[in-house]
Amino acid sequence: MQKLDLWLKPYEIIGTGTRAGIIEVCMDALSIDSIKKKMGGKNSQIIHYFKQQFGGSRSKAFKQARQNFCKSLAAYSLLCYILQIKDRHNGNILIDIYGHLMHIDFGFFLSHAPGKGVKFEKAPFKLTAEMVEVLGGNRSATFVEFREYMKQGFMALQQHASKIIIIVEMMFLGQNDLECFKGGEQTIRDLKHRFFPTGKRFTNTECQRHIDNLVEESYQNWRTRCYDNF
Predict the structure, then answer these.
(1) Fewest C-beta in 10 Å: which of 63, 89, 163, 179?
(2) Is pLDDT at 1 greater than 80 in this prediction?
(3) How far is the C-alpha of 65 from the C-alpha of 67, rounded, in Å?
(4) Within a 10 A sphere around the Cβ of 123, how many other Cβ atoms?
């Protein structure tokens, strides 16, 4: 394993049937939707919650919470891009008491997405202006760190891509009637392309360029804003 300084929240799922199971509850966290309601409505910003919860932007607690947010945002952005996790509205994204961002509800991924006809979630991953504001803005040192974390994470994903691809292929061969495989064999081809857009592993420079393009495409994407409003 790469032992990168990134953060994801694993939680246990116990299968109770072929298409049923029990999911572990995520403790000490609130959805962004709940946070906004508590802070005064949809026009409230995540940064206001961080300042209220952790103190001013110069406080030690705030700086640590910002770092936690940065590392978790980078990790979940990569996860959402590679596996094409959708339905990323504010009820499915949580923030814990340490400032980590945490995703739940993975009912739509790979070739399965909500909506019929119009597919709003076309961005590689969700990266809103208020998320970037928590990092300190798109010209901040923390935003540069965010992109660096994503580059390191993507290079690690390329190194271990074959393991993930094999697992997905095994699932496809065993249960290709699942909604996530509604795209058929193209689903597997698209997954491989996301891992290796040029057909081979990136150099450090190539990876940074690719990550910068993904970030630029995702940041303030109008389709993401439309889905949030919807």
Answers:
(1) 163
(2) no
(3) 5
(4) 22
A 10 A CB-CB count for 18 gives 7
Range 13-229 classified under CATH 1.10.1070.11: yes
What is residue 227's predicted lDDT score, i.e. its pLDDT?
Answer: 65
What sign has the CA pseudo-torsion 69, 101, 76, 43? negative
- In Å, what is the CA distance from 76 to each residue of 70, 169, 202? 10, 22, 21
Find all residues with CB under 8 Å of 189, minimum gap 6, and list them.
Answer: none
Q: Could you identify the residue written with the tokens 């994503």? A: 150
For residue 22, give every residue at least 6 positions away whose Cβ sits within 8 Å of its Cβ, in sequence order, or none. Answer: 13, 14, 16
H helices of 90-140, where?
Answer: 129-135
On the CB side of 39, CA atoms within 13 Å amount to: 19
Domain range summary for the chain, segments of one domain joined by +: 13-229
With 0.85 as the threshold, say if the pTM is over it.
Answer: yes
Q: 201 has which bridge partners?
A: none
